[in-house]
């Protein structure tokens, strides 16, 4: 399948054992050091106040285990080194604070350790992880925005594509407006005479001209091959006729690669309120066919 390499989504699975296991091993080593230091430096709690008599150590231990699982799972993803370092650092600091929390249930931990080490490390770890998650969310949002734009943009001309055109027409079902269907005359002859590279230049040049028409009431799209469409959000027939006339005249003045000139044929119709997209396109397509049959380089109104 040609798209297998994209199936993992935004984050690919990390196959490096070094990247996956070193952070977990480091956090485990630091936790072990914290526990040994507690056992060496502070007295054990007496009967009735120790970890056997209270269930707090169970929840603290589960938190410690969960944070290590999160650390290991996170490092299974490929990510930018700086972002990985930020989140790994935050998680490891957070895990160390959880180790302090566990030992607080076993030994008599001084208040200064609880306040100035345990709580501070937990806060620093949480802030680092939160900052990393913020960057991940922003990255995902940027990727989503780019993917959305790319799904609606024609790659060759940078105009909106057929999907965007159809979506816009459906959204404007309740409105009356003009729809133009435009076809480049004798485009096959251009490809045959000058080559497909020059044919692409013609499409790009015509698309660039159409893009200059864009405003709040005019939307130009490439809907396939040498076929383009324009939505003119007005019911003023005179204004629509002027825009169609400009399209014809400006196309005649276009010169591509110093020697290629061409014309276009336009089918146009006024979409009625509540008229379906299918019916509109059928009417305007018939008008375009008539314009081509009548000699091309003209507008036919449906």
Number of domains: 2
What's the helix count? 9
Total beta-strand segments: 5
What is the makeup of the main sheet? 5 strands, mixed
The quaternary structure here is single chain
Order of helices and strands: HHHHHEHHEEHEHE
Give the overall silhouette.
elongated
What fraction strand? 5-15%
Cα distance spanning the termini: 45 Å
Structural class: alpha+beta
Q: What is the overall pLDDT average?
A: 88
Radius of gyration: 33 Å
| Residues in helix, % | 55-70%
Describe what you observe in this structure:
With 302 residues, this protein is α+β, with helices and mostly antiparallel strands. The protein folds into two domains: 4-151, no CATH class; 162-301, 2-Layer Sandwich (Alpha-Beta Plaits), CATH 3.30.70.270. It is built from nine helices and five strands; from the N terminus they run H-H-H-H-H-E-H-H-E-E-H-E-H-E. It has a five-stranded mixed β-sheet with strand order 2-3-1-4-5, sandwiched between helices. Strand 4, helix 9 and strand 5 form a beta-alpha-beta unit. Helix 2 (56-74) packs antiparallel against helix 3 (81-104). The longest helix has 41 residues, at 111-151. The two termini are 45 Å apart. The model has no long low-confidence stretch (mean pLDDT 88).
């Amino acid at each position: 399948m040609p798209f297998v390499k994209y199936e993992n989504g935004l984050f690919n699975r990390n196959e490096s054992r070094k990247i996956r296991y070193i952070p977990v091993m480091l956090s485990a080593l630091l936790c072990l050091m914290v526990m040994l230091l507690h056992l060496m430096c502070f007295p054990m709690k007496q009967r009735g106040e120790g970890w056997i008599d209270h269930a707090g150590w169970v929840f603290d231990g589960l938190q410690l285990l969960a944070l290590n699982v999160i650390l290991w799972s996170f490092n299974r993803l490929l990510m930018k080194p700086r972002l990985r370092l930020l989140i790994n650092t935050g998680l490891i600091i957070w895990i160390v604070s959880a180790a302090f929390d566990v030992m607080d249930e076993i030994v008599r931990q001084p208040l200064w350790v609880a306040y100035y080490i345990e709580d501070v490390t937990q806060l620093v770890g949480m802030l680092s992880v939160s900052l990393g998650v913020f960057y991940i969310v922003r990255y995902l949002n940027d990727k989503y925005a780019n993917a959305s734009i790319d799904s609606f943009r024609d790659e060759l001309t940078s105009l909106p594509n057929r999907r965007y055109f159809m979506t816009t027409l459906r959204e404007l079902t309740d409105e009356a407006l003009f729809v133009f269907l435009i076809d480049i005359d004798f485009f096959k002859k251009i490809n045959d005479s000058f080559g497909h590279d020059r044919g692409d230049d013609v499409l790009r040049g015509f698309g660039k001209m159409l893009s200059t028409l864009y405003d709040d009431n005019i939307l130009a799209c490439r809907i396939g091959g040498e076929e383009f469409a324009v939505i003119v959000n007005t019911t003023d027939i005179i204004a629509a006729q002027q825009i169609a006339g400009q399209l014809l005249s400006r196309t005649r003045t276009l010169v591509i690669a110093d020697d290629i000139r061409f014309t276009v044929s336009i089918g146009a119709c006024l979409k009625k309120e509540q008229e379906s997209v299918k019916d509109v396109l059928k009417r305007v397509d018939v008008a375009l066919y008539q314009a081509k049959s009548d000699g091309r380089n003209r507008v036919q109104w449906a």
